[in-house]
Design goal:
By secondary structure, the protein is mainly alpha-helical. It folds into two domains: 219 residues, no CATH class; 206 residues, no CATH class. The protein is 84% helix and 0% strand. The chain has 21 helices and no strands. Helix 1 crosses helix 2, helix 9 packs antiparallel against helix 10 and helix 12 runs antiparallel to helix 13.
Length: 513
């Protein structure tokens, strides 16, 4: 099987455009918030948003469930069942949206019980922000339903392009509303507007361009039983994801200061950008995993399926980690200020152990296709409790650095140790072969590129973007050269040559015209 079809290449390319646009937007907005609103208000927004994001554990992996089962029914040419499934599942989505609203109202009424260290003015502002965020969460849940339809039909380019437009419009709106005096409310107003528009456009595209029909063909609750298992697994994973991404900020807000929350939020922003690098590759492989399992592929075949995108994921992550180790302090100073410099250490503490599960991200597509997501979700829920306990225990001892340390330890126990034992014994993946082939030769390129660029780490001119850009370009050039000369395997070299040849043909065609 080819690693990337044309549609996948377009999707991955657009995803990386989206990552770049999102990174630029995040950097500009974070700097803008700190400069315009100050660390205290930015920390307040992060605290309130962190609590709101807990509610999104009720998302139930709506998009993933739609992709999984609509793809299966379409593969079997059972379009009637796909329509009926969408109707049944649509009712569940509406119920979820209602639960999100109800829980959001209850949480909003109890913000004083969650954060006891705010002023009366901050409580009043927090309640107003939370009301708008509840509406945003409802639109997000409904939007995931229609986005799942688009991805099931492999309409990657449309959704990725729409996401890019959403980022750009949101950035412009935030700058405008905050500048015109809306303050923190300008941020939440912007978010809800762009997410509502994204949801509406996704709905219209699914119903008109794809011409997907959501029809009732008779009650058939039995077809939802396997979907419920996946939803419950995704619910547990959502608990883990949102708690792990928000618990540190929440506990820091309770046990330390809003400034500490702001520093951690800067680190979390970098980590989020890092997490998008490998998922851009793996996100387009869910339909292929379903098809492989349907054809009865064994453990070795599934291992080979995971290795190919996994190698690309490791090359991206290895380069990012090495580059951030070398120049991350420069980046944080340029982006924010010296008061946020502790974020550099927080990022590295979490990034390094998190690289392993991200490198294996395509394993999740296999688990979904096999309907075996539940074990992973249960393990990660238990580890979330460990993360919370460790965070509370380590902050008094280590200070704010205890929060990322606890997260890093939980990643090692759950993602690296327990899950790889499960992959080997229950899914029959060849884990040793997986790591050997994913890391083959390319890990040496990461180390060599970092070592060769160590002298540049000492060239420090605080706040100088030009110097930072030169360093980054030199590092990227060396790293890419090492990969081409030594790290790439034959298939990857062929992909690179094909891309170069396509560019040459396009240039030749333009010159002829």
């Amino acid at each position: 099987m080819r690693l990337f079809t044309t549609s996948k290449k377009v999707a991955v390319s657009l995803t990386y455009v989206s990552i770049v646009v999102q990174a630029l937007s995040t950097m500009l907005l974070t700097s803008f918030y700190l400069r315009t609103l100050g660390a205290e208000k930015y920390g307040l927004y992060q605290m309130i948003n962190a609590v709101a994001q807990y509610i999104m554990i009720l998302d139930l992996g709506i998009s993933t469930v739609m992709i999984r089962y609509i793809t299966e029914f379409n593969t079997k040419n059972d379009h009637k069942k796909a329509e009926n499934f969408a109707f049944h599942f649509g009712l569940i989505v509406l119920a979820v949206a209602a639960c999100v609203t109800a829980i959001g109202v209850v949480v909003n009424l109890n913000l004083e019980n969650i954060y006891a260290n705010l002023t009366p003015e901050e409580y009043e502002l927090s309640h107003r922000m939370f009301n708008v965020i509840i509406i945003q969460l409802v639109f997000t849940v409904i939007g995931h339903f229609f986005q799942g339809i688009s991805f099931a039909y492999e309409q990657y380019a449309f959704e990725k392009t729409l996401s890019i437009c959403q980022i750009i419009v949101n950035t412009v709106l935030v700058f405008s509303l905050v500048t015109f005096g809306f303050g923190l409310m300008g941020i939440v107003y912007s978010n809800v507007i762009v997410i509502a528009l994204h949801t509406l456009i996704s709905l219209l595209y699914a119903l008109t361009a794809i011409k997907f029909k959501i029809r009732f063909h008779g009650w058939e609750m039995s077809m939802l039983k396997p979907a419920f298992l996946l939803m419950m697994a995704m619910l547990l994973q959502a608990i883990v994801g949102h708690v792990n991404s928000s618990v540190d900020k929440t506990i820091l807000g309770i046990m330390t200061t809003k400034t500490d929350v702001a520093v951690y939020a800067v680190a979390a922003t970098v980590i989020t950008m890092f997490n998008t690098l490998p998922t851009a590759v793996s996100s387009v492989f869910q339909p292929d995993a379903v098809k492989l399992v349907a054809r009865g592929s064994d453990g070795e075949g599934l291992t080979s399926f995971i290795i190919k995108p996994g190698r690309i994921q490791f090359m991206l992550m290895g380069g990012f980690i090495a580059g951030f180790f070398l120049f991350g302090q420069d980046f944080i100073i340029c982006w924010t200020n010296k008061n946020m410099l502790n974020a550099w250490g927080y990022v590295l503490i979490i990034l390094i152990p998190n690289a392993v599960p991200l490198m294996q991200n395509t394993c999740l597509s296999v688990l979904n296709a096999l309907d075996k997501r539940m074990f992973r979700s249960v393990v990660l829920v238990l580890l979330t409790a460990v993360n919370i306990g460790l965070t509370v225990a380590l902050i008094p001892v280590l200070g704010p650095v205890g929060a990322p340390a606890a997260t890093g330890i939980s990643y090692i126990i759950g993602h690296i140790v327990i899950m790889n034992i499960y992959y080997q014994r229950k899914i029959k993946l060849s884990v040793p072969r997986m790591f050997k082939e994913m890391l083959s030769r390319s890990w040496l390129c990461v180390i060599a590129a970092a070592a060769l660029n160590l002298p540049l780490m000492l060239w420090r001119i605080d706040g100088n973007w030009l110097v930072l850009a030169v360093k980054a370009l030199v590092f990227c050039g060396m790293y890419f050269t090492l990969l081409v000369l030594y790290g790439f395997n034959q298939s990857e070299k062929q992909m690179l040559l094909s891309a170069i040849n396509r560019i040459r043909r396009k240039k030749r065609g333009k010159n002829e015209h």
